[in-house]
Fold:
Amino acid sequence: MKLNLIITLFLVGAFLALELLGSQVQAQSGKFDVLLRTRQPTAEGSSSFNVVEAAESWNPNEIAVIVCDMWDSHHCFNAVGRVEKLAVEIDEFVAVTRSGGATIIHAPSSCMDYYKNHSSRNRAIATPMSTSLPDQIGQWCYEIPSEAAGEYPIDQTDGGEDDDPADHERWAKELESRGLNPKAPWKRQIDTIKIDQEKDYVSVDGKEIWSILEDKKIKHVLMVGVHTNMCVLGRPFGLRQLAKNGRQVALVRDLTDSMYNPAAKPFVDHHTGTDLIVQHIEKYVCPTVTRDQIDTSKSTFRFPSDTRKRIAVLIGEREYKTDETLPRFAIDSLGKDYKVDIIHANPEKRNDFPGIARLSEADVLLISVRRRTLPKSQLEVVRKFVAAGKPVIGIRTASHAFCLLKDPTPEGLDAWPEFDADVFGGSYHGHHANKTKSKILPIDQVSEHEILKNVSINGSFIGNGSLYKVDPLADSATSLLMGQIADASTQPVAWFNRRADGGVSFYTSLGHVQDFENPEFRKMLKQAIDWTARETVNDRK
Structure:
């Protein structure tokens, strides 16, 4: 028994040692390889953005990590819980970057009294003041000029507290019992994040921190901490000030958290609120990275409370404006339950989907693509997703997403003419006259299906685009709604299909821009996504 215990302890110790060694591989190689992620308009003046990644190799000695406002307490009870979990990950990140030679600056605002006479605080004070301080570097920054091009994505005027009222009241009383101000209880940085008194700095002064960056000849700054939409962006040492004054700064997007209340606009999940702020930063402020790019022994961090499924939305059609309707639908209808990743086609190269490789990270795929043939490697990403038995939702032109009408497939590109049959169980073969609206009819046998729950199918529910000819459906498909126009046979307009690979798909030939104005259509599409996403090979309903 003792021998077995000794062997077990040895193996555990060896595993931990290997993990630590893996964490330091990049640092010892002399470079940190990062992918700087930004979002660029798909075309000049467009409101659609594609993710753009740029690979760079950074010298660790030219990197500073700023730890923003990771306080030991907070007036928001839920924020405290998230910070406690985040702090463990930030401490490990700081240790790895420090061991590689990076400079660490701890910046817990309003807490400098605690660090009076602390060696790391004294080191910051002793740093020679820069002779080229940017104008207003010591002030809070609420916006930089580039942000004027976009709309701020969340409403934080309520302070962003997302506590249950009873929890918040109990927490306030507990803080009072400790002799703390319930509105501002922080006194220091959370002690989970260790400060190396021989190397690190402690400062919240914009002038001091700018001077440290110059004194240490820092070229790259990584920002971690909270809260993304407030202190991380706005502090004198925050992203806005550093970016507008020419520093190459990047947010570590998985080591941050926002102050956002889902009861405020746009009424999405707390973590979706953080995602929206991160996207705003990538569009208008600075790039982002993830911690696994620095600490290669780790995967990207995700809060345990973030239980959202990941849905990729593939958009590549010009007729029905789904590059406008689907992003809005994603915020209005999917933001509470899904982490949404929108992948647009390249507007200059119609058969190219930059970022389609991210589909491999998704749990669900929503497709709005029309007659695109892709590079083989890109279409293979879609094939692998389907073959894995994952759920697929298609609207309108998705039935003829990856094939041309008559022309042969261009050299070097790949087509999937059987996509409709293979994935949706359909047989699209044209459509009735354009601008002919169709009446939507229920099917009695399936009128109670979960996808149609509380969806009002009456005279006001019409199909605004031409009625697609899709009969016959495969035996594996189940029709949910029919479309009717004068002098023509009815056609299925919504159905689900149990695929040969074990996965489940939903398809609707609806999806015209005016269809998205109909709340009943949006409700059906959301419920179809939910139902399809829940379906598994071992749990079919």
